[in-house]
């Protein structure tokens, strides 16, 4: 099986890309925006889905849905990683059918992707922005607006568990 040799379009050879970290059930998912498009580390997604994706995903996806890129690891060192595009992630969630994948898709759509895009916007302005509050490898999606943090109604049970 030949692996895709497509590389990240905007990648500089000198500097590794810096991923944003997201956590679901204490499992990490690293994500990046490359030329405005969301890309995810395949190994992390596989751990989230409890599936071995690295070889099978490449075989089942189109060439523009996977690439290799150099990213910064947890120690600040350069690491080569297989990345999957947003459309590739959704295709993979459908292909590897499991009931939990619906929850992963919803988490990606409602928390991860909006937060990832907000990070790319830079300094806060007068518009509401999604933020992730992190503690002990957990996170809560909130809305930062007019100097206050707003918790979505669907996240309230999680906030109540944290407070008790």
TrEMBL record:
InterPro entries assigned: BRO_N_domain
Residues covered by the Bro-N domain: 10-120
Protein name per UniProt: Bro-N domain-containing protein
């Amino acid at each position: 099986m030949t692996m895709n040799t497509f590389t990240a379009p905007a990648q500089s050879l000198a500097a590794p890309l810096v991923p944003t970290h997201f956590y679901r059930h204490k499992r990490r998912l690293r994500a990046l925006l490359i030329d405005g498009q969301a890309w995810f580390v395949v190994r992390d997604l596989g751990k989230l889905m409890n599936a071995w994706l690295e070889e099978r995903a490449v075989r089942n996806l189109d060439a523009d849905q996977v690439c290799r890129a150099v990213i910064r690891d947890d120690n600040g060192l350069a690491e080569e990683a297989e990345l999957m595009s947003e459309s590739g992630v959704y295709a993979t969630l459908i292909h590897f059918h499991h009931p939990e994948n619906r929850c992963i898709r919803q988490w990606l759509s409602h928390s991860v992707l909006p937060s990832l895009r907000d990070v790319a916007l830079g300094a806060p302005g007068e518009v509401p922005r999604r933020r992730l509050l992190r503690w002990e490898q957990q996170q809560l999606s909130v809305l930062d607006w007019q100097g206050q943090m707003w918790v979505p109604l669907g996240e309230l049970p999680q906030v109540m568990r944290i407070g008790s």
